[in-house]
Amino acid sequence: MKINHINFIIVACAILFAGCKKEGEFVLKPVKALKPFDIKGYVVADTLEQYFDGVKVRDLYGKVSLAYVTPQIAFQNDVAVMQLKKKSTKEVVYEQKFSIADAKNEVANFYFDGTKVSKSYQYPKPEGSDYMVNFYFDGPKGMPSVDIGIDVLEYYMDANNKVIVVHSTSFPIAENLQRGKWSEYLKISPPPPVIPTQSGTDLYPVVTIRDAKTKKYLIGNNFETSTIQMEIPDQWTSQGKVQSIHIQQKGAEKNVFMEINDLVQLFP
Q1: Residue 97's CB: how many other CB atoms inside 10 A?
Q2: What is the pLDDT of residues 233-249, one digit of tens each?
Q3: CA-CA distance, 189 to 173, in Å (whole number)?
Q4: What are phi and psi of 17, to 5 degrees?
Q5: CA separation for the pair 43, 183 (Å, rounded)
Q6: Most buried by CB count within 10 Å: which residue of 81, 98, 200, 255?
């Protein structure tokens, strides 16, 4: 989520100078009050631009949260108007007015699917002990399609406490996933038993993402950087689960990484 600091500069100037005048007219109106503000939601497919009283303050994509900052609305009038616009078309898809009289101003948790704003993300309920998952893969334009699967790693720890993988057995979950759209819901089964190839090793299952064409791990051809944090069933699973995994490939060159969010956890 990118933040434009112009709104904070405007607030500071207004407080310090109680409004800047040019030829007798206010260039920056005095701030009448500062009130706490919060917003939560999730955005996919198209970036949302957030505006207050016609001034853009930030871009929103992926998980929308202000948990690590304490923003405030600078009221220049008794009412402040917030708009969310699609970056691709500048269409206003959501508008909310905030009153200077309210002690708390917040935007309720929302989901934007690239077309419309909804109150929540919709997903099916688990049936019995079934594990269901769908995926949304985000990467740079021109990215290849990807495969997602369970890799059962056969490994041991060396003298420096480093993981040494000696063998990997793969079981597919989804193949040839295209960038920029949700897959269908897929059923996940526990991986079949794997027989170690040598003594003194342990087995551990991880969910990984690979280039669908080359079959190499997506990030640096490394299983650790290409691992998706999600839950998979085991032979003792007795209760079902649904997951909706949004995978964002971020960074550039040697600093590429993946950000993973489960929308079911964000919209319980």
Answers
A1: 9
A2: 988 888 999 999 999 98
A3: 9
A4: -110, 0
A5: 17
A6: 98
